[in-house]
Amino acid sequence: MAENVINDNLSFSAEPIIEFRGVSKTYPTGTHALEDVNLRINKGEFVFVVGSSGAGKSTFMKLIMREEKPNTGVIKVNGFNLTKMASKQVPKLRRTMGMVFQDFRLINTMNVFNNVAFAMHVIGAGDAEIRREVPKALSAVGLGEKARSMPMQLSGGEQQRVGLARALVNAPDLIIADEPTGNVDPNMSYDIVTMLTEINKRGTTVIMVTHDHGLVHDFNHRVIMLDHGKIIADIPAGGDNV
């Protein structure tokens, strides 16, 4: 991985979907998770976030989702100022996001269709819209024939595809993928990132945390590297990232 390469050539004329200005986060335990982080992610980018355990990746994602608040600095996501946001506004922020997790987080008592539909019910979508959009999302991830299957009847890779369909179904502006390939085999890992890349090509911003430097190399998107809470490299798409 190339080190100490800071990308100073981003197109700041583009509209940012995520902006951190002087953001620091220290937990009550005294752990300094992030320190004076400044970055800008523009709409339509695909960004890998990499770093060793304890580098600050999880905190970075939690701040974007407003699961945590910074001690100092300003965070803006998709037009929302997270540092001034009232708690009652957080659901509105999260409706603009799709989230994909390492552990899938499917509801085992619901079939595939209803797992994806659940994300639409949460935002108050009507039954007709759900019947129309859920099959589209399942087809987009290659699971059109699995709508009535239960999660435990699926492979790990298929379960993660359900998670991706659930993230997609509300047509979010931003997809947050936290180690989405951590519990699937290498071939499925490649397929998952390929699907995220295709989604990104249609205009959705994708932020993906990963430990898999092979995937980072193969897909050659922008890379932000964290170490001890600081950005030590910000390599543009097409750069020498491994």
Structural class: alpha/beta
- Distinct helical segment count: 7
Query: What is the straight-line distance between the termini?
Result: 3 Å
What does the radius of gyration come to? 18 Å
Shape: globular
Mean pLDDT: 90
Characterize the main sheet.
6 strands, mixed
Strand order of the largest sheet: 6-7-8-3-9-10
Poorly predicted segments: 1-13
Instruction: Summarize the amount of helix as a percent range.
Output: 25-40%
Approximate strand percentage: 25-35%
Order of helices and strands: EEEHEEHEHHHEHEHEE
Describe this structure as you would to a colleague:
With 242 residues, the protein is of the alpha/beta class. It has a domain at 108-170. The chain has helices spanning 57-65, 90-94, 112-122, 127-140, 156-168, 186-201, 213-219; strands spanning 16-26, 32-42, 46-50, 72-77, 80-81, 97-101, 174-178, 205-209, 222-227, 230-235. It has a six-stranded mixed sheet, sandwiched between helices. α3 crosses α4, α3 packs parallel to α5 (156-168) and α4 crosses α5 (156-168). It is globular, with a radius of gyration of 18 Å. The model is unreliable at 1-13 (pLDDT under 50).
Task: Record the SSE blueprint.
Elements: E1 16-26, E2 32-42, E3 46-50, H1 57-65, E4 72-77, E5 80-81, H2 90-94, E6 97-101, H3 112-122, H4 127-140, H5 156-168, E7 174-178, H6 186-201, E8 205-209, H7 213-219, E9 222-227, E10 230-235
Parallel strand pairs: 3-8, 3-9, 6-7, 7-8
Antiparallel strand pairs: 1-2, 1-4, 4-5, 9-10
Helix pairs in contact: 3-4, 3-5, 4-5, 5-6
